[in-house]
Amino acid sequence: MSELPNCETLLLERDGGVLYVTLDRPDSRNAMSLAMVGELRAVLAAARDDREVRAIVLRGAGGHFCAGGDIKDMAGARAAGPDAYAALNRAFGALLEEAQAQPQVLVAVLEGAVLGGGFGLACVSDIALAADGAQFGLPETSLGVLPAQIAPFVVKRIGLTQARRLALTAARFDGREALRLGLVHFSEADADALGQRLAQCLEQVRRCAPGANAQTKALLLATETQALGPLLDDAARQFAAAVTGAEGAEGTLAFVQKRKPNWAQ
């Protein structure tokens, strides 16, 4: 079990193979400061090779997920000039890249404000659960700036047509519309229903072997960048290794013996 870093902007809790990460700046609706970006990246790095962590649940404190970037950080960068702005912006993009590639299943629980950077985090989750009353949006253009690091992930998530509409109008929409757009997988009426859905999804994740899940996630992401033939060649080799490996042997034996495999106990 890897040691997690000490954090000032995040609350961390481990429970039954799940790492719960709560954005904890409720006074600013969990606006994404540079310190929070750094702490999130450190937490993801610490958990990356920890096979005891099966899923990472990301949510926000105080009834909001994340209201976007921290205006105070932006104001602080103004005195240092354009390079400071670029570095600040790119650090968040690096977080999105790392979160998307995280070997564990990343679950986003989306309540209240899910704006800007919070919207970006939703787009890199493997499973996204929303409250019906959550408020989603890309407000950047209404502030005279660009959703610079978020845009590619939004396009991948919901397609270019919808991404153009939302980014160029700064329109706000709720969890039910997010479900219709394919941004989230479930939208629930209240906190109890949201909690029940989260528990159901985590139980489903626990049925899956952690190594197989990590390799499958990498394979799915690779379909966006690799040529089909080489991708299938690599996948065949990975399949052969998995079938003859510890998880494959245990999964096959458990099936024959009509019991749960050891990772699902």
From TrEMBL:
Single biological process term from Gene Ontology: isoprenoid catabolic process
GO MF assignments: catalytic activity
Source superkingdom: Bacteria
Coiled coil: none
InterPro entries xref list: ClpP/crotonase-like_dom_sf, Enoyl-CoA_hydra/iso, Enoyl-CoA_hydra_C, Enoyl-CoA_Hydratase/Isomerase
Listed transmembrane segments: none
UniProt similarity note: Belongs to the enoyl-CoA hydratase/isomerase family.
PANTHER family on file: ENOYL-COA HYDRATASE (PTHR42964), POLYKETIDE BIOSYNTHESIS ENOYL-COA HYDRATASE PKSH-RELATED (PTHR42964:SF1)
Protein name in UniProt: Isohexenylglutaconyl-CoA hydratase
Organism (species): Pseudomonas delhiensis
